[in-house]
Amino acid sequence: MSAAASGSAPEVGGWQPRWRSLAQGVLRVNSDQGEQQLLDTLTQPSEPLMVAFVNAHAMNSVAHDPRFYRALMEADIVLRDGIGMDILFRLLKQVPGLNLNGTDLIPKIIRRYAGRPIALFGTQEPYLARAAGRVTGELAPGGECITAHGFLETADYLRLAAAHKSELIVLGMGMPRQEEVAVMLRAALDHPCLIVCGGAIIDFLGGKTTRAPRWVRGMHLEWAWRLALEPKRLFRRYVMGNPLFLARAFTLAATSSRADRTSS
User: Fold this and answer.
1) Sign of dihedral through CA atoms 211, 213, 214, 219?
2) CA–CA separation, 4 and 78 (whole Å)
3) I need a labelling partner for 78 at 20 to 30 A (CA). Which of 7, 104, 165, 198 fits?
4) Rounded to the nearest 5 degrees, what angle is found at the Cα of 120, between the Cα atoms of 25 and 204?
């Protein structure tokens, strides 16, 4: 279900209603065939379409940032990213679906836009230029890729995307900035396009950040790999944020269980 299916994000107070509402809006994909169908949808949008990802860090941010919550709820499609969301859904006795993290899914999306105009907005040089080179040389050859670093005014991104008629716009500005820009892009653009909130994807494509080995990813420990590479920047997100996320997840599950018993 689209997080924006009702037209706008409900105004709810407190972190528990926000978490519950956002979790309900996450699109769960349960099979490889479902993932291919999703990619088909994302490849041929009929109007500006916004895609966002929700992970443990996003949920922690939503708990204290109503503005970020509203931006996420404005997304047309919200996908779950990471083991934290898997744990949350299981605690809520819901099927978590596939882990459609942006680092793996976005390159698949880019490949489907070969020969079409693409925009990368985010990060900084030289990583931005390297990412663009990988897009045009490997992932999606045959099309033009425009770039802009992640520290411009929102109006600059609107102008660039409109002039270029970008059919795929990948934002790599971090939360909550990229989600806020995505909402503005979708409202301003009048041509069909896909707007993807990509987090660190441009850094990954540009070689600033390296992926964890497959065996580490298979153990759901890529967050620990990233923490080891950037301990100062990511300490608060992972060392402090992960236990906080789990505490909130258990609290929400307990509250939901009590509510279910009361209503039955």
Assistant:
1) negative
2) 9
3) 165
4) 80
Quick check: pTM over 0.90? Answer: yes
| Residue linked to tokens 């080891």 | 228
Residue-by-residue DSSP string for 50-63: EEEEE-HHHHHHHH
HEC states along 144-210?
Answer: CEEEECCCCCHHHHHHHHHHHCCCEEEEECCCCHHHHHHHHHHHHCCCCCEEEECCCHHHHHHCCCC
pLDDT digit string, tens, across residues 155-188:
999 999 999 999 999 999 989 999 999 999 999 9
Q: Which residues neighbour 6 within 8 Å (Cβ) at sequence distance 6 or greater?
A: none
What average pLDDT score do residues 41-59 get?
Answer: 97
**Per-residue pLDDT reduced to its tens digit, 8-35:** 444 456 899 999 999 999 999 999 999 9
**3-class secondary structure, 116:** coil
Task: Map out the domains of the chain as residue ranges.
Answer: 15-263
Place of tokens 């660039």: 160
